[in-house]
Specification:
By secondary structure, this protein is α+β, with helices and mostly antiparallel strands. The protein is built from 3 helices and 9 strands, in the order E-E-E-H-E-E-E-E-E-E-H-H. The chain folds into 2 domains: 2-76, Roll (Ubiquitin-like (UB roll)); 91-132, no CATH class. Helix content is 20%, strand content 33%. Strand 4 (44-50) and strand 5 form a beta hairpin. The protein starts with a strand and ends in a 6-residue tail after the last helix. The model is unreliable at 85-104 (pLDDT under 50).
């Protein structure tokens, strides 16, 4: 049995996955780490980087030799929908124009609140997340 040491970039401690053979593919390493950390493959993907050379492993069929140490980061899957229910969830948002406010998800309600303040656009530009957030339903 051989092993690879991995450490999430946000954690202080490292861990180890065990496998058979002189090397493991990146796809198999990701599967082993996700299983050990109880992560679901539909929620995120893993970015794996060699801890010594800082080279990112990009090819899923690329081989990682036994005894390697890697740094792992969770990254969102592009185009994946969030599993959370945005209709019932309250969101705490802070913008530079107002204090911390609790609002129900909805772009129009927040836009109306901002426009009601009658602040110049230079002081209170429309927040970028209002223009790009696809997860908010109207």
């Amino acid at each position: 049995m051989t092993h690879i040491h991995y450490k999430f970039s946000s954690k202080l401690s490292s861990d180890t996955v065990v496998f058979d053979g002189p090397h493991v593919t990146l796809r198999e390493l990701k599967r082993l780490i996700m299983g050990r950390e109880k992560l679901r493959s539909g929620d995120c993907d893993l970015q794996v980087t060699n801890a010594q050379t800082k080279e990112e492993y990009a090819d899923d069929e690329g081989l990682i030799p036994k005894g390697s140490s890697v740094i792992v980061r969770r990254i969102p899957i592009i185009g994946a929908k969030s599993k959370s229910n945005s209709k019932t969830r309250n969101i705490l948002q802070f913008n530079q124009c107002s204090a911390l406010t609790q609002v129900k998800p909805g772009v129009n309600a927040l836009k109306q609140r901002l426009s009601a303040l009658n602040l110049p656009k230079l002081l209170c530009p429309e927040p970028a997340f209002l223009l790009q957030d696809d997860s908010v339903s109207m």
